[in-house]
Every structure is written in C-alpha cells, then in structure tokens.
Design goal:
The structure holds two protein chains of two kinds. By secondary structure, chain A is an alpha/beta fold. Chain A contains five helices and eight strands; from the N terminus they run E-E-E-E-H-E-E-H-E-H-E-H-H. Chain A has a single domain, classed as TIM Barrel. Helices cover 22% and strands 19% of the residues of chain A. The longest helix of chain A is centred in the first third of the chain and has 11 residues, at 40-50. The model of chain A has no long low-confidence stretch (mean pLDDT 94). Chain B is α+β, with helices and mostly antiparallel strands. Chain B folds into four domains: 6-109, Sulfite Reductase Hemoprotein, domain 2; 127-289, Sulfite Reductase Hemoprotein, domain 1 (2-Layer Sandwich), CATH 3.30.413; 306-398, Sulfite Reductase Hemoprotein, domain 2 (Alpha-Beta Complex), CATH 3.90.480.20; 413-559, Sulfite Reductase Hemoprotein, domain 1. Chain B contains 19 helices and 21 strands. Chain B has helices spanning 6-27, 33-41, 65-78, 101-109, 143-153, 226-240, 251-258, 260-274, 283-290, 306-314, 316-325, 353-366, 389-398, 429-438, 442-448, 510-524, 531-538, 541-548, 551-559; strands at 45-47, 52-56, 62-64, 82-85, 91-93, 127-128, 168-171, 185-191, 197-203, 215-222, 326-328, 334-339, 350-352, 370-373, 379-385, 413-414, 453-456, 470-477, 480-487, 499-500, 505-506. In chain B, the strands form four sheets. In chain B, strands 16, 17, 18, 19, 20 and 21 form a six-stranded mixed beta sheet that branches. A five-stranded antiparallel beta sheet of chain B has the order 1-2-5-4-13. In chain B, a hairpin with a 5-residue loop joins strand 8 and strand 9. In chain B, helix 1 (6-27) runs antiparallel to helix 4 (101-109) and helix 3 (65-78) runs antiparallel to helix 12 (353-366). The radius of gyration of chain B is 23 Å and the shape is globular. Chain B starts with 5 loop residues before the first helix and ends with a helix. Classes of the chains: A alpha/beta, B alpha+beta. The interface between A and B is large, with 40 and 43 residues.
C-alpha cells in the first residue's frame, strides 16, 4: 500500500489522486470507490453531488488558487496541493493561506515532486500530510526521511506550525 | 556588531549538519543533480569552471577580526590563498572541493558565520551602507534593522522557492550607499512627522537583463510593521510572479506588468491579514538587537590631529592616500579608512590570506576589531584615530592594501567574469587590469576625478555595469568575447541606468576606448564638473563622436 507521512509518522494510505487526461472533461464524473482527491475543476462541476462524500478531497495544481475553495472548506476533509516541480514554491503560500486566512482544519497534503529536503518547510507552512511520489523512496528511506522534519529545532520566524516568532517565544539575552 | 546567542548558534550548527547529510546523500547518488542544485545554491555553492565556488554570507558587510582570520585560514587551507569580495558584500572562494565544503561550513559556524541563502531563489544576504554607524550624514543606523530582517528571512519556509532570487537593501543616511533603488525591496529608514521610525519602501528595482529602478510602494511603514509588510510583498510575488520564463521571473517584471498602483493594492490587501500579527516587531526585540550596535568606546580627541596634518605635509604619498581613501567620521579625531582591493596587479576585489590576516591585525590594533566589506569590493576600517592613520597606511601599503584610488576610475567594480564564472559570456578581470594599467598615472587619475567604472562579464550584471558612470558589459558574438560600453549610469540618490553608446569592441580596444571617453570629458568639462555631471549635461553624442568618429552620428541621422 502507498505510504505517506502524516503528522510526523509514516502511515499507509489508499487515497487516489484523480488526474484527468486531455480527453476527459471534468463534467464526466466517474469516481473510483474510496478516498479520492478530485481536481479543482471536477469539484467545481459537481460540488452538489460530491459535497459530504466520505473520503473526498480536492487537489489543486500550483497555478490554481486556494481562494477558489474559500467558501467550500466546510464540505472538504482534505485538500492536496501539487508541486509540479519541487522548485515551484507556490503551494507553500497556498497551504499557509488555507491554515491562517481560511482557518482550514482538515488535512493539507503535499503531492507531486515532494522531496525530503523540503519536508521541514512544508510542515512549517501547514502541510500535515506529505506524500512523495510512489516509488520515490523505499520504506526504509521514507522512515529515514522523517529526520528532515526536525532539521531546525527553533526557527526564527512565525509560521503555521509555530505561530510565534522566536523573539516572542524566548527571552533572548542582549 | 551582532553576536550570536545560543539560538543563532544552534541554527547555523543545524545547518551544517543538514548540509553535511545532503552532501553525503548527493555523493552517494541518493540525490540527483537537479535535486541537489537548489540545496547547494541556498548554501552559496556553485559549480564553476574549475571547481565549486562557495559564497560565504557577510550580513550587511560586517566582520570581526576573528571572522576575517577564519576567512584567511579557509583561503589558505581550502583555496589557492585568496578570496573575492562580491557586490553583495559577501566573500567567495573559488577552489574548494565539494566534499570539504561541510568542513568549511563547520569552521565558519565556529565564528558565527555561514553561507545561508547566498544564492538560490530565496531572500539573499541583506546589504547596507558600509559606513553605517560612523557616517556624518546618517540619521538612523540601519544595522539593527538589517539584523532583524536577516533573522526573519533565514529559512523562511514560505519563501525558499520563489520564482527567482530576491535581494533587499537598507539605507539610513542622506546619501544612499546601499543602491536601494536597484533592489527587489529597497528600504529607506526615515522618521514621520511625530518622530517615529519607519521605512520608505521601494519595490521592483534590479539590474540584470532588464535594469529597472525601483518604485515607491509606500512612503512610510512604521517600524513595527516592516516584517509583515515585506511578507505581504513576498507573498504576492510568490503567488503571482512568473515562473514560466527565467528571464521574466524577478519581482520587477510583476510590478511592471501590474503597474505599481495595482501591485500596491494587492500587497496592501494581503497586508490586512498579516498586519498586527505575531511577526509585528516589539520594542524589546529591536532594543535587544540594537544593543549590539552601540558605538565603541571612543576617546575624546581634538577634531584635527596636529600630527596627522604634519605627516600629510611631509609625505605626498601619504597625503594622496589620505585625500582619497580616508573619509570623514562623525566623531572628532576619528576617520574612516578604505583598504583598497584595487591593486592593478590583482583582480578587483580579490584579497590574499596574508592580506586578510593583516587587515584583521589592523582592525584589532586600530579599529575596535571590526572590518566592513563594501559592495564596491573594498574593505573598510570604520573607527581609526587620525593619529594612527600614518601607521595604518604604512602597514597597509606594505601589504598592497593602500592603492590611493578610492572613488576613481581605477577603483572599479568588477565581477569574476569568464576566468571563473560559468555564466559569463566574457572575461572581465583582464579588461579591468588593462584599463587600470592605462590609467596608472596617479596625477592623471586625480585630474579625471570621481568616476565609477563597473564591469560585468554577462547580462546577470553582478558587476553593476548598468549603474556605472562608465559601464562595460561582456557579450558573446559568434563565440568570441566583445565588450559593450554604456555611459551615464549612476548609483545613489540619483540612480540612473546607463545608455549603450554603440557597437561593441574587442578586448584589446578597450583601454583606447576608455581613453577616448575620458578625452571627451576632459575637453568638455566645466570647472569642478565631475564626469557623470558632464555626461548628463552634454549627452552621449560628443562621446560617440569621440569614440567612433563623426560616422556614428551621420549613420544614426540617416537611419532616423
């Protein structure tokens, strides 16, 4: 079974990320059973039907805006943000916005080109689920990669995982 | 200067451990070339023509003598005995082996140094006025604010993978000495009518392929809100900056595309959510950081040291150096000394391990143990007694650090160019040295007067050629190296982008071309007029005629 990192632990996960190819219109709904992340366009086309479906999540590509989900968040248990390339940093802002501005409490999952050397930043920006591509890491490598979540023990600036900056958290001697 | 506490130290120590593991995984084949590249770049490590190049951060240019000795040791042990000072006030080593870089970082961490974010698509080393704290025209010391911003920007999780690099500079004096108009964010410290400190914020300036002067996004942000304001700018940029084209990915392109009014609207709409949030600065934090930048224990001295005047009268060479390389200090009896790294026998901005050790000794003996690196690629001793200047000069001169040309044509800014840099289209160091040789006569140089000549080996503009009074840009034409000349650029309060005068030249022609430009200036200048003022007054045509002959103008008119 595919694995992901959830709240700092490696867990099994069977959710499917539904990707439409060019021939499939978002209106043609044919969902697999079980937990699934549908593209934003599918969600927007079928909100009425999909709302409240158990295990339903929506995934956004890096050019898509979390603002478009602002009014739907109560109907969603999970949102996945795609990193088409790990150097495309837009999803960091997306996750931070979902957590801070929109107060989203469900799962925010990093998908796509997700690499261990960015786990720390993802966690700081509010991703609680981190899913490297299938086959990217062996089980042993993924377990080993958990260490990257602890790269820095006391970061300077406020972020989602640590909403107070160091200068408010610690009494620092002059 | 700022000294690390246990938190700062832990962050750089953890960085060393992190990069050591990343390097190990790369060398073991667990990280691909593409995966490792941004990681090493965010640690200042480039793969260059000969070996990796390591860029070490010197936050806003400040160094202790101990740090300088460590840099000397690294130059001696892991390089070929020299280092290079960059236009972001950083230090570069050109020859370290990849596998020893973690060791170098560990050595740096022991003296509170690192290479964090000296490259990569993230917030880079923040630069400032090299004369901060000692300049007479300073109204607010920028250093505490630079340090506050350094800490905020270090490993900022949201802005580690921006569309492109992001450079910030802070100035707090009447004269802008930090090139704030040519930064992604330029911050000008100021006071409002009530005397409260804040910042005028410029955004979207930059050099590179598309030189643009920054525009004012707000004329005043109170100091408490500067971090949240910058975060709003960066968030808009991170979300909407172009990522499809490397050459259009800087924030300046976004600001131009939206227009400053619309960009400002988006930023301030974003700011509503962050303003007054936890990143709002506190008085306690600013006071804590500012306490690191108090004035040293200056002695009470007469404003004009009698011995200093006598030494100048008795020794013309010392007088020449004092005239050019010694600057006024806000405290009576003290002076600011520029240790020149523009010896024509060396690459501009290069410094040997022995020179670094000597500079550290001079700092300890004569300048409270501190040294600054300037974006013009020199070193500064900021707090020297006038009565010590002669001794400083003698020692600096013996070590080749007293070339008396600060602010003159030969004090050029110059990138490493094609001799070292894998990005360069053309060499820049030999051009610099050939021009320096042409203008080696000091009387002639002094007659020419204040002049900034900047050389870049490619469009990336590390040598700031766009803002040189004379700018030289290396270009590639069918695989050979050519040089384009521009005039009328300027940094500082009246920042302007130079204009290209015409077709480019072969390397061997360059000293003659610069001579012709200077001849036009000397023939046309009015009493007391500096080079840049003459260019502004008479325009480019007389220079074009001087360089290309009348044909240039006739051809242009025919094409018009």
């Amino acid at each position: 079974m595919p694995k992901l990192i959830k709240n700092g632990h490696v867990v099994d996960d069977s959710a499917e990320i539904l990707v439409l190819d060019e021939t499939q219109a978002p209106e043609a709904l044919n969902l697999p059973e079980g937990a699934v992340f549908v593209p934003l366009a599918v969600w927007q086309a079928h909100k009425g039907v999909l709302s409240g479906r158990p295990g339903l999540g929506v995934w956004l590509d890096s050019h898509e805006s979390v603002d478009d989900l602002a009014t739907d968040l109560d109907s969603l248990q999970a949102i996945a943000l795609n990193f088409p390339k790990f150097t495309d940093g837009r999803a960091y802002s997306g996750a931070a916005l979902l957590r801070s501005r929109y107060g989203f409490k469900g799962e925010i999952r990093a998908i796509g080109d997700v690499l261990r050397d960015q786990f720390f930043f993802m966690q700081r920006c509010g991703f609680d689920a981190i899913q490297p591509k299938a086959g990217k890491y062996s089980d042993a490598q993924l377990a080993d990669a958990l260490a990257s979540l602890q790269d820095f023990s006391s970061p300077y600036q406020a972020a989602i995982d640590q909403p107070e900056p160091l200068f408010r958290r610690a009494a620092r001697a002059a | 200067m700022y000294r690390y506490d246990s938190y700062d130290q832990k962050i750089v120590d953890e960085r060393v451990a992190q990069f050591r593991d990343q390097t190990r995984r790369y060398l073991a084949g667990e990280l691909t070339e593409d995966e490792f590249r941004p990681l090493r770049l965010q640690n200042g490590l480039y793969i260059q023509r000969h070996a990796p190049m390591l860029r070490v951060a010197v936050p806003y240019g400040l160094l202790s003598s101990r740090q300088v000795r460590t840099l000397a040791h690294i130059a001696r042990t892991h390089d070929k005995g020299y280092a290079h000072i960059t236009t972001r006030q950083n230090f570069q080593f050109n020859w370290p082996e990849l596998k020893v870089v973690p060791e170098i970082l560990a050595e740096l961490a022991q003296v509170e140094m690192h290479a964090i974010q000296t490259s990569g698509a993230c917030i880079r080393n923040i630069t400032s006025d090299p004369f901060a704290g000692v300049a007479g025209d300073e109204y607010i010391d920028p250093r505490p604010w630079c340090e506050v911003l350094r800490q905020w920007s270090t490993f900022h999780p949201e802005f580690a993978f921006l569309p492109r690099k992001f450079k910030m500079a802070v100035n707090g004096a009447h004269q802008d000495r930090a090139v704030i108009q040519c930064h992604d964010i330029g911050l000008e410290l100021k006071r409002d009518a009530a005397g409260e400190i804040g910042f005028r914020v410029l955004v979207g300036g930059g050099l590179g392929r598309t030189p643009i002067i920054g525009e004012e996004i707000t004329d005043f942000v109170p100091w408490q809100h500067i971090i949240t304001y910058c975060e709003a700018i960066l968030r808009v940029y991170n979300r909407y900056g172009r990522r499809d084209n490397l050459y259009k990915a800087r924030i300046k392109i976004l600001v131009k595309a939206l227009g400053i009014a619309e960009f400002k609207r988006q930023v301030e709409e974003e700011w509503v959510f962050g303003k007054n949030g936890p990143n709002t600065l506190t008085e306690a934090e600013v006071a804590r950081v500012a306490a690191h930048f108090t004035s040293p224990a200056y002695a009470q001295l007469p404003g004009d040291d009698a011995g200093y005047a006598e030494q100048r009268d008795a020794n013309p060479a010392f007088a020449a150096w004092a005239k050019r390389n010694v600057l006024a200090h806000k405290v009576p009896g003290y002076a600011v000394v520029v240790l020149s790294l523009k010896d024509p026998k060396r690459a501009p901005g290069d410094i040997t391990d022995a020179q670094l050790d000597l500079a550290a000794d001079l700092a300890d003996t004569y300048s409270f143990g501190e040294i600054r690196a300037t974006h013009e690629q020199n070193l500064v001793l900021a707090d020297v007694r006038q009565s010590d200047l002669f001794a400083v000069w003698e020692k600096a001169r013996a070590a080749g650090l007293a070339t008396p040309t600060f602010g003159l044509l030969n004090d050029m800014i110059c990138c490493p160019g094609g001799d070292f840099c894998a990005l360069a289209n053309a060499k820049s160091i030999p051009i610099a040295n050939a021009i320096q040789e042409r203008f080696e006569d000091l009387d002639y140089l002094y007659d020419i007067g204040d002049l900034e000549l900047n050389i870049s080996g490619c469009m990336n503009s590390c040598g700031h050629h766009h803002v040189g009074h004379i700018g030289i840009l290396g270009v590639d034409k069918n695989g050979s190296e050519w040089y384009q000349v521009s005039l009328g650029g300027s940094q500082g309060n009246n920042t302007s982008i130079g204009k290209v005068i015409g077709r480019s030249f072969a390397a061997a022609e360059m000293p003659d071309v610069i001579s012709k430009v200077i001849d036009v200036y000397r023939a046309q200048r009015q009493e007391g007029e500096r080079f840049i003022e003459t260019v502004r007054r008479i325009g480019l045509d007389p220079f074009k005629i001087g360089v290309y002959g009348d044909a240039a103008i006739i051809e242009r008119k025919q094409n018009a």
